[in-house]
Design goal:
The chain has helices at residues 18-29, 41-55, 69-83, 106-134, 155-175, 193-206, 210-219, 229-239; strands at residues 10-12, 34-38, 59-63, 88-90, 137-142, 180-187, 251-254. By secondary structure, the protein is α/β, with parallel strands linked by helices. The protein has 2 domains: 10-189 and 228-254, NAD(P)-binding Rossmann-like Domain (Rossmann fold); 191-226, no CATH class.
């Protein structure tokens, strides 16, 4: 299937590793020129070189910390300038810290808002005029299964990501007349550094090895395995494509069946 992504400039935040890197790879493989950002310049440039070698495409690296207002805006501006526009945006950022409600201070909540909510809306606000000008726009928010099925000791993520989904659903209505779609993917247990840290915490609490913890987690998933980041990246690429032109306001689980609800 031709996704119609060739030549469509795409910006993927927090893409030096994990899900962001997987999204950038999937888009680049489909022929989209991609701009990526991350805080660690060395890791970012290494990823850029890897993706160029793997895909033969155009990949631009912009060093930025999207939890900072100026960096979130600058990433979109510099990325769009380097690629000749912005038709696809994947707002992404690392997850906020672990913690229980009683242990978290106001400062923790403010930092989580900057990291996951404000970064997303700032990047989108900067990208949308460029999408209108191009007559093509796809915003694919990187979220979490925690939106539908809250996870223990992750109240910051559970709460802030739910707020982002409320924002995204409202934005889908507002920009739909401009042929801009807004969707989100909600990964479950996908093997990223974040999930590995969750496995380590679980293993420590249960008094077993990380491998045993991973096997136990996989056993609770209907597909009986943990996910690969590339499986999330490919869903993002589809949502960014011409083939998904009639999908907006959709929030799609990529979780191997982990979520048990009906809606």
């Amino acid at each position: 299937m031709d996704l119609g992504l060739a030549g469509r400039p795409a910006l993927v935040a927090a893409a030096s590793k994990g899900l962001g890197k997987a999204c950038a790879r999937s888009l680049a493989r489909e022929g989209a020129p991609v701009a990526i950002c991350a805080r660690d310049r060395g890791a970012l440039e290494t990823t850029r070189d890897e993706l160029v070698e793997e895909t033969g495409g155009t990949v631009v690296a912009v060093s930025a910390d999207v939890s900072r207002e100026e960096d979130a805006v600058r990433f979109v501006r510099e990325g769009a300038e380097a690629l000749g526009g912005c038709q696809i945006l994947v707002p992404n950022a690392g997850g906020p810290p672990f913690g229980r409600i009683e242990d978290l201070a106001d400062e923790d909540w403010r930092a989580a808002l900057e990291l996951n909510l404000f970064s997303t809306l700032r990047m989108a606000r900067e990208a949308i005029p460029r999408m209108r000008q191009a007559g093509y726009g796809r915003i694919v928010v990187m979220s979490s299964i925690a939106v539908k099925q809250p996870l223990a000791d992750l109240v910051l993520s559970n709460s802030i990501r739910a707020a982002v989904i409320g924002w995204a659903r409202t934005l889908a209505d507002e920009v739909g007349p401009d042929a801009i779609t807004v969707n989100a993917v909600m990964p479950g247990r996908v093997l990223t550094d974040r999930v590995r840290s969750l496995l380590e915490r679980g293993a420590s609490a249960a008094g077993r090895s990380v491998q045993e913890q991973a096997e136990a987690e996989a056993g609770s998933v209907p597909l009986r395995r943990l996910g690969d980041p590339g499986e999330v990246g490919d869903v993002v690429a589809f949502l960014a494509s011409e083939r998904a032109s009639y999908m907006t306001g959709c929030f799609i689980q990529v979780d191997g069946g982990m979520y048990r609800g009906l809606l």
